[in-house]
């Protein structure tokens, strides 16, 4: 990410909420924020995950139950944070919770498609709405964890990419809408990151594939398997989650953050190609790179 000068920073060790904090990028964000003196409200869905975070990261880390698909849990979390933060409000909201389901669009069960959109997009909006009054008090910032696939499509990633593209579109709208209160909205666009999400994605996809008609296997089975294998390999070689966490810190601390931070050499390389090559060329290169 490069070195930050003191004049560039807007250091503010206040309170920050991180959703999806149990593993991967979320856990890395919690650790990095804690080290820099923030009071971190770590959003988790399981009590054991919260207890583990407190054991591993002692001090100013407070687990909070947040299921982005349950409005009641979001409301209660916002009330708890409001009680703890008081008049200081909330300096940062890191919308990180998300799932990956990789399937061909033609046979993507609509209930699963809706669930992915609900978790990755609608749920993030629900969380943001709940915490905005606290962010307004502190003139804080919203950091949305997006993805390279928000801007460059990949086969069998249509649902995931759609959810992240929607999140980026809304982020731009909110950035303009919230400007009068000094609340900035930033998107983080990682490439491949070495997190458990790849294993979870593969397991989920396999379970769903077993319920699909035989026609789906005949039409997409071989290529879908190739994609799954390549995704696992790429994920294993991905950057550490701490690299994404450092980008989140930068988005929270610089005086004038960018609208987007691209993280990872692969993401930067792909976006550079996409800037100069026709879209169909990019699609051909993507398929070739994936062995399709």
From the helix content, strand content and strand pairing, which structural class follows?
Answer: alpha/beta
Tell me the CATH superfamily.
NAD(P)-binding Rossmann-like Domain
- The top level CATH class name: Alpha Beta
- The portion of residues forming beta strands comes to 5-15%
Strand count, sense and barrel status of the largest sheet are: 7 strands, parallel
Mean of residue pLDDT?
90
Task: Pick out the low-confidence regions.
Answer: 1-10
* Order of neighbouring strands in the sheet with most strands: 3-2-1-4-5-6-7
Distance between the termini: 33 Å
Radius of gyration over all CA atoms, rounded: 19 Å
**Number of β-strand runs:** 7
Q: Rough shape? A: globular
Per CATH, which architecture?
Answer: 3-Layer(aba) Sandwich
- Give me the number of helical elements: 10
Q: How much helicity do the residues have?
A: 40-55%
